[in-house]
Amino acid sequence: MMQWIVASSLKFRYLVVAGAAALMFFGISRLRHMPVDVFPEFAPPKVEVQTEGQGMSSAEVEEQITNPMELVLMGTPELDVVRSRSVNGLSQIVLQFKRGTDLLHARQLVQERLNLAIANLPSSATAAPVMLQPLSATSRVMKIGLSSKKYDLMDLSMIAYWTIKFRLLQVPGVANVPMWGERIKMFTIQIDPERARRAGISMNRIHEVTSETLDFGLVPYSSSAKTQTEGFIDTPNQRLPMLHVQPVINPEDVAQIPIQVVNGRMVRLGDVANVLWDTWPMVGDAVINDGPGLMLIVEKLPWANTLEVTRGVEAALAELAPGLPGVEIDSKIFRPATYIELSIHNLNRALLIACVLVVVVLAFFLFDWRPALISVVAIPLSLLAGAIVLYLREATVNTMVLAGFVIALGDIVDDAIIDIENVVRRLRQHRQEGGTRSTARVILDAS
């Protein structure tokens, strides 16, 4: 087979040169669009479903949410493994599908099953099951640190949530941007149980009065729950819904809400609770450059290009920077694209050094520029042919591929030097002996 390939190449050498030129042009144009990542997609396709059950213990979540949903989801076609975890107030189910399953097709199958699972959930499940965004096996593209000497962490969290996060989600390839250490500003009523006990006020009474005052409550079918409209007025043109707007605006107003009369004294909300703008109880936090701050985790889709996503995020941060005075943005905390860029740079440098050494060696020993030119063309062309095969198989350029190219480069350089030297030596020997064989036959025998 190898002899036939060499003989055919010598016979149709002009066609081989034209094919090599076309391969070089096609390879360079396609190689720029290949997805680049640190590691290949080694994990099987998976879909994660989360369901909230506020106020439920781990055992209640397992019994009332996780188990019923598992029974429905286990019948999903092409499913391989089901894993679940139940913690306080949250159920997590991870569905792993067989390798080769199209991820979007798997998500569609799970969504159809979720519509059946919702009917089996108890009313204590405060939200419908949520299917999380599809993520790459190595999903974290960047870690961005936010800190400020001008804003406190609560105001910085609101800036990050409404401005920075929304803009980063618009970058092509970004799946999600969770934040660590965020303190979302919210209207809180922090009840002091000891003060409420001394005043003779129950927790249910405080909840009822607060909900009715703010016209918003979590208890279904209560007067403050939004289960129906508050009326309407018919006009000749249309029906206008009625909405009662409460005059309560600030925490100071809410603190003056009367709860009930106890021993002839009116007890107000501010007597049994602290009413203020605050955030939720913190579970974890973020430390940025040895100080308090926020950490934004940029996660990418499975089919996204790490380099393109990173450059898109950095371009978005550069656009936002003029409108964020007093906010320090550190996007170098964790950046896998730096490792990829360094690896590609090292491969290019190794390829350049190899070509130079081949030219020097062949020119020094053979005293002929044509063998050196052939070797210089053959080395990058061989690597390019391998890259095209990876492109046709829809593979990613990652550290494993780059390591293989570097190893292959040594073998290619060895062949380029030894094979060319052997061919040139055989041709010179043939001329000195005055042989009658053709040049193509001498080259074929030497190869």
Question: What does it look like?
Answer:
The chain is α+β, with helices and mostly antiparallel strands. It has helices spanning about 1-10, 15-30, 60-75, 105-120, 155-170, 195-200, 205-215, 250-255, 270, 305-320, 335-365, 370-390, 400-435, 440-445; strands spanning about 45-50, 80-85, 90-95, 130, 140-145, 175, 180, 185-190, 230-235, 240, 260, 265-270, 275-280, 285-290, 290, 295-300, 330-335. Strands 5, 6, 7, 16 and 17 form a five-stranded antiparallel β-sheet that branches. A four-stranded antiparallel β-sheet has the order 2-3-1-4. A two-stranded antiparallel ribbon has the order 8-13.
- Main pleated-sheet profile: 5 strands, antiparallel
List unreliable stretches of 5+ residues: none
Helix-strand category: alpha+beta
> Would you count the extended β strands for me?
17
Distance between the termini: 13 Å
How confident overall, as mean pLDDT? 83
* Number of H- or I-type helical stretches: 14
What fraction of the residues are assigned to beta strands by DSSP?
A: 15-25%
Features of the shown structure:
447 residues, alpha+beta, four-stranded antiparallel sheet, 17 strands
What secondary-structure arrangement, pairings included, does this model have?
Elements: H1 2-11, H2 13-31, E1 46-52, H3 58-73, E2 79-87, E3 90-97, H4 103-118, E4 130-131, E5 140-147, H5 153-168, E6 174-176, E7 179-180, E8 186-191, H6 193-199, H7 203-214, E9 232-234, E10 239-241, H8 251-255, E11 258-262, E12 265-268, H9 269-272, E13 273-278, E14 287-288, E15 291-292, E16 294-300, H10 306-320, E17 328-334, H11 336-366, H12 369-392, H13 399-433, H14 439-446
Antiparallel strand pairs: 1-3, 1-4, 2-3, 5-16, 5-17, 6-16, 7-16, 8-13, 9-10, 11-12, 14-15
Helix pairs in contact: 2-12, 3-4, 5-10, 11-12, 11-13, 12-13, 13-14
